[in-house]
Design a protein that fits this description.
With 262 residues, this protein is mostly helical. Among the domains are: 53 residues, no CATH class; 117 residues, no CATH class. Helices cover 67% and strands 0% of the residues. The protein has ten helices and no strands. The longest helix is centred in the last third of the chain and has 35 residues.
């Protein structure tokens, strides 16, 4: 449903361009309608976690962060789908905040979750778990501080892509606008520190991280969640040992046993 409806939402970026009101109304209807399957998808994610055996490792933390940021980004998008609201908020920082909640807060967090989860498969090593969690919390705090401040700036009428600005005090106090800009800047620096930790953790762990000893580094078999990619990874480790590893006992996959020469 989302894939089909997505073909009819693109013009909600053009409500203020003077397009035919009839076309504008049709695109508004589809843009509002796409929120329904998106909400179903969100409840699906939440109920999947409900009463589940959650382990708050870095991949799971980023998945939870993805869902929460997707909700904020999606709800703020519903307002922009309504023509009267969009005409007021168009080309303000509200649009920037909404967009980045989806791109960084949702898509970015999902990518990080996948990287941490499959990192042992790609590299044969494990990353530093404490740095992974530090990366999550700095990213979560920085994302929400930066982009929520932008949503507030949009409501105050702050246009985007302006280097200098001056407000009528009757519309929005200049001091309040400057405060939200400062909060957004602080959040951006927190976000930057988090990404530097991520880069360091990935590179250092790839080169020097502890090697994974078996094909189930997340202990998934205990909960019946061991998927095919981990079966492949386990076979890869066994093959590596057979081709020149030091563990002779695990290399005897035909059921034989090591015997002394004498």
């Amino acid at each position: 449903a989302i894939g089909v409806l997505s073909f009819g939402v693109w013009a909600h970026h053009m409500f203020s361009t003077g397009m035919d009101p009839r076309l504008r109304a049709s695109f508004m209807a589809v843009s509002l309608a796409i929120a329904i399957p998106s909400a179903v998808k969100t409840f699906n994610w939440i109920t999947t976690m409900w009463n589940g055996r959650l382990r708050l490792a870095s991949p799971m933390l980023f998945c939870i962060g993805f869902v929460s940021n997707f909700i904020i980004g999606g709800v703020t998008g519903v307002f922009l789908a309504a023509i009267p609201v969009d005409l007021v908020l168009h080309d303000t920082y509200y649009v920037v905040g909404h967009f980045h909640y989806i791109v960084m807060g949702a898509i970015g967090f999902a990518v990080f979750a996948g990287i941490y989860y499959w990192f042992p498969v790609f590299t044969g090593r494990m990353y530093q778990r404490k740095l992974g969690k530090a990366h999550f919390w700095l990213s979560m705090i920085g994302t929400n501080l930066t982009f929520f401040a932008m949503l507030a700036l949009g409501y105050l009428g702050m246009p985007r892509r302006y280097a200098t600005y001056q407000f009528d005090g009757a519309i929005a106090p200049l001091a309040q606008v400057s405060t939200f800009h400062l909060l957004a800047t602080v959040g951006a620096f927190i976000l930057l520190v988090g990404q530097l930790i991520f880069v360091w953790n990935i590179v250092q762990s790839w080169l020097e991280g502890p090697k994974v000893q078996d094909g189930d580094p997340w202990n998934l078999e205990r909960d019946g969640l061991l998927d095919k990619e981990w079966d492949w990874f386990d076979r890869k480790l066994e093959t590596a040992i057979t081709d020149g590893g030091e563990d002779e006992q695990s290399a005897l996959t035909d059921g034989g046993r090591v015997e002394d020469d004498d």
